Amino acid sequence: MNEPIYQNHFDKLDVQVFADAKAMGRAAALAIAKDMKTIIEEKGTLRMMFAAAPSQDTTLEALLAFDDIPWEAVTAFHMDEYLGISEEASQSFRNFLNRSLFSKKNFGAIHYIQGDAPDAQAEADRYEALLQESPLDMVLLGIGENGHIAFNDPPDASFSEPRLAKIITLDEKSRVQQVHDGCFALLGDVPKYAITVTIPAFMQAKVLHCVVPNTRKADAVKATVLGPIDERCPASVLRTHSHATLYLDSASASLLPR
Would you tell me the crossing angle of helices 21-43 and 57-64 to the nearest 10 degrees? Predict the structure, then answer.
């Protein structure tokens, strides 16, 4: 069964809690697949952005099981990439998404952020130009332990950022999370800089599906859902979007009132 054990709206945000990560992933994938097919039927194409993190594993696995999604109509983007890291590195977000999704379906187009480009600012400009061609239709995202979305970390995240993609300095909590996720062995191994898609780029999308399992995310989830809507918890902006859903497991939702 994919029915939530708890569901409520917080401002505009639809919050659904499931018994475990697998049930959460299946439910999210079912809703994502439905929205993908609806948008493709309406427009003929779909501009879709994906998060690259272990938190997305159950959702991506369930999404791949659908055999009626016209992936050839999908133009894919991703959210962020470390500076100076090659696509072949196991920690690369390009590598993660290629292994987990992009190599498994026949996408119409895939636009990667080249973190090892010789001119990082030129690469951020190039990716921004791709995003400026047309607003995103859908974003699949997560929430970081510090409340970030993509690498828009507090206190530098901005709801009114004029850029759609930019170079950022990673908050230490973001870097620690990469160690917690098993991507790097030591904090000193985690790069300090990255290119990230900004919050305004996400908020232009028609549909947001946000998947957040794990006890380590419970504080960030509480701040997202119950705290003030401001840049101290960047994910709180999701409560202002007209079609956003937050999928939680019982662990990540453990600090929410029922």
Answer: 50
